[in-house]
Amino acid sequence: MSTSTVVDPATSNAPEAAAASRARFASLVQRQGALAIFVVVVAVASVSFDTFASRGNLTGIAVQASFLAMLALGMTFVIMTGGIDLSVGSVFALGGVLAAWGSQHGTLVAFVLPLAVCGAIGLTQGLIIARGGLPPFIVTLAGLLFARGLLLLLSDEGATTYKVPRGSAFRKLAQGELFGIPYPVLLVVLFFAIGALVLHRTSYGASVLAIGGQEDAADLMGLPVQRTKVLTYVASSLLAGFGGIMIASYTSSGVTILGVGTELEAIAAVVLGGTLLTGGAGTVLGTLIGVLLLQVIKNVINQIGSLDSDWQSVVSGTILLLVVTLQRWLTRVDRT
Amino acid sequence: MSDGTATAPSATTAEDATTRTRPRFDQDWVRRNGVFVALGLLLLANVLLTDNFVSTGTLRLQLVQVAPVVIVALGMALVIGTEGIDLSVGAVMALAAALIPLYVGYGSVGAIVIGLVAGVVVGLIAGVLVAVVGVQPIVATLGLMVVGRGVANLFGGEIKSIREPGIVELGTGSVLGIPYVVLIAAAASIVVWLLVRRSTYGRQLVAIGGNKLAAQLAGLPVRRVLVTTYVVSGLLAAMAGILLAARSQASDPTKLGQLMELSAITAVVIGGTPLSGGQVRILGTIAGALLMQLITATLIFHNIPDSTAQIVQAVIVIAAVYVQLGRGKARRT
Fold first, then answer.
1. Searching chain B, which residue's CA lies closest to the CA of residue A275?
2. Once rounded to an integer, what is the mean pLDDT over residues B254-259?
3. Which end of chain B is flanked by fewer CB atoms within 10 Å, N or C?
4. B135 to chain A nearest CA, in Å?
5. How far is residue B210's CA from residue B277's CA, in Å, rounded to a whole number?
6. DSSP string of B85-104?
7. Range with the largest mean pLDDT of B54-63, B185-194, B208-217
8. Which of B239, B246, B259, B261 is nearest to B118 (CA)?
9. What is d(CA B315, CA A124) in angstroms, rounded to the nearest whole number?
10. Which pTM was predicted?
11. pLDDT tens across A148-203, in order?
12. CB contact under 8 A, A321 and B135
């Protein structure tokens, strides 16, 4: 290829440049793979079903996605530190029940009580993980059991469903809207914007990425490893608890059966969004797209009336496997 | 105990060895065998405090209930030994069970074989994703968990009853007073124990879990061993699913095997197998499953509600791992 007689320094860089462009392509797929699939699915659905692109349906998708989005935002930070939080589904459900119970004693209680309890669970988990050095997988697995146990205790083994009082201002949180956009959707946009700012513009965000990249190195650099980890698990539990508050407001009750398997949906959304499970890299926006993709798939399958809703899990699971396979395949090509 | 420093400098004085290693050795013993100690103490407490605990009926029921968990946990122990994790086991149980009522036309054996094949297929996919493609075990098996549960629902639909006499007998029958379900769990335990301790596969598995790169450089068939491990896990999970369906004479694709992956992981970890791989403790895993079962049973015997039982379990899991962690830390430094 270098037939020219002139010794061009650029030609010696050609293989590197090719490798670099391949790496760029790989990272593009990693970051935007979910976005590409999302765009295709939305385009096909809009053409195929008259009802899909309707304002009401799109708003419905956005509202439905907003609850999972809250959990997934916290999970993104946890996974970026190289950890995992299996407790969020239970904490989410617990937050909802506490909010519904608390709303009988005023709107303030409906907010403060769930956040206090969920924050305490996150703090405990964070301390055990960061200071005790126990594996996050086990600690948050125990957290899952603990929060669900607490939830069952509160609801007489699931027999009691607390209702939000009819006139309560608390209902406004998820049922109100501004300029036609429901509050939950606005809240998600706000939270994700803050999340992105925190990740890219604060020293805490830099620490999160550094710890996930290599914890020992981050420690040697003098970064506050333990404090960052504790904060991350607290934030994850608080966000899950807030998701619970939102759904309690939206459904006007504390639904005890919610949240089973939600932690895995959140992990799936984060992975689809291009955050590496090994930590150290990822984007907050990618997670949002991952959540939306999962929700759109659910919606499309509901639109195809003849298809069983069981197809939801088959399709979203298959897409998850395809995306990660593609990610791995491309990053491998890049490495050799 | 196993670290070279205790044995290699034999030239140092004997008193040095006794003063330094004796207390650490004892602590180490408790850490390694804490699950057996806890199980023993809880058994003793029940013998003393629980009415009608010492009866063949109670004992048999506990063993029948724990048998499927043991079978799944055996496979999970192997997977965790390779520094992996298998979240798909619950879905595989549901899938295998869902196939039974559909294929009873081929006879009991035919239907069971089809159920087991389904477990092998899912295990094979998981193994290929992990070993060949290089997807992280937690993501690969999470995807399969979601897909597997969906497929089980698609095949199985709502709850279907199982009336085939051969399968009903498998789930409820017994020989010499010992239920088949318990015998199968015992047989599976012995086979897996032999696999780990006496076979080349077992030694390769532990080596790969300890250090994958080193194992690869040493020329071990890393991919083959990993794929085999996930296949074994899938097969065992399918077996457990079929036994559960046979016992309840029904397959419920939505509920069967739910949260089983967590029970199995808990049993393995409490039994002393580290999540970081490189070790497989089969006896510990069985004791771990028995301990969790006995804790739940004890709380039920004494009319403590399910909610409190879950909270107690959570605390025990953390405590057990914390106690074991001392060993890992001591070894690392």
1. B139
2. 82
3. C
4. 6
5. 6
6. --TTHHHHHHHHHHHHHHSG
7. B185-194
8. B239
9. 12
10. 0.81
11. 889 888 887 777 778 887 777 777 777 777 887 888 898 999 999 999 999 888 98
12. yes
> Do the chains contact at A318 and B266, CB–CB below 8 Å?
no
The separation between CA A165 and the C-alpha centre of its own chain, rounded to angstroms, equals 30
Interface test with A, best of B135, B138, B146 (most A CBs within 10 A): B146
Task: Note the maximum CA span of chain B.
Answer: 74
CA angle B299, B304, B310 (to 5 degrees): 70
Work out whether strand B250-251 and strand A177-178 pair parallel, antiparallel, or are unpaired.
unpaired
- Look at residue B12 in the predicted model and tell me its pLDDT: 43
Q: Are A277 and A26 in contact (CB under 8 A)?
A: no
CB B115 within 8 A of CB B102: no
Q: Which helix (H) or strand (E) holds A181?
A: strand A181-182
Question: Do A236 and A122 contact (CB within 8 A), yes or no?
Answer: yes
A137 vs B139, B275, B329: nearest CB:
B275
Closest residue by Cα to residue A195 from A121, A118, A285: A285
Q: Are the Cβ atoms of B269 and A138 closer than 8 angstroms?
A: yes
A288 in Cβ contact with A69 (< 8 Å): yes
CB proximity list for A268: less than 8 A, separation 6 or greater: A290, A294, A316, A317, A320, B142, B143, B146
Residue whose token pair is 């006496």: B198
A to B CB pairs, distance under 8 Å: 135
Of B247, B15, B234, nearest to B127 by C-alpha is: B234
Contact between residue A66 and residue A185 where contact means Cβ atoms under 8 Å apart: yes
Instruction: Tell me the per-residue pLDDT of A231-282, one tens digit each, with 9 for 90 and over.
Output: 999 999 999 999 999 988 888 888 766 666 788 889 888 988 888 777 667 7
Neighboring chain A residues of B134 at a CB cutoff of 8 Å: 328, 332
